[in-house]
Amino acid sequence: MISLTDVSYAYPDAEALTLEHVDLEVERGSIAGIVGASGAGKTTLAKIIAGFIPHADGGELSGTVRVDGRDLSTGSLVDAVSVVGLVIQNPFNQISGAKYTVREEIAFGLENFGTPRDEMQRRVDEVAALLRIEHLLDRSPYALSGGQQQLVAIASMIVLRTPVIVMDEPTAQLDPAGTRMVFDVLSALRETGITIVIFEHKLELLQQHADRLHVVADRSIVLSGAPDDVLADDRLAQWAVGTTRYVTAGRLARERGLLPPEVPLPVSFEQAERVFDRERSVR
User: What Gene Ontology terms describe what this protein does at the molecular function level (predicted)?
Assistant: First the structure.
């Protein structure tokens, strides 16, 4: 579904590459989580996958970017937006400014694609119910909190039903309950065959919902694998990437002789509960 091969990129007038020799494969109908330190190039990678680079941002892009069978590095931005929906970190910058109500804002993309009015209304109502924002539909997008605006921005992409959705820290403005709801929605969308790439710092939720994790560091993707394997990797610290509290607890237990080195580090609460219960019973 998504295939990046030997991709490198430099912004206009930049003296150095932001990303270099990036290879990435994401299977259809999966959730790929991408993590990395601030400034590692995650937003740049999100824009490349979504086709906004180089078509909107300019600069020099080399390599191949294929999404749903299309080469987005050589096509147009119009081609890209028909297959990839992009949710950016700051929802205020994603609000169109052309509509007076949330309902109209969510329908804006459908309107541009020439979707029949009855279908537009039905799809807006469906996505509003999915994200539990029906009570916001008649309000102005600019009269909302940052978290509410973020949910509207997410709804505006989901409603398009593109085969791929790319999300750059989509829960940054949301409280814990809103964050969990969004991740639950993404898992539900995966079941419909939509492919999701999510750039996030909330590692415990990525562990629960992502099929694979990819680490961005040193201007490339330096590690890919199953979430449990990636989050337990000792090299994350050198790349300034955190891990879950359960991995931290496991490492402390090892240092104090409470967890044998041959026992895998727990990554989730359930794993930690099993590991420490078993070690306690042995002792």
Answer: ATP binding; ATP hydrolysis activity; ATPase-coupled transmembrane transporter activity
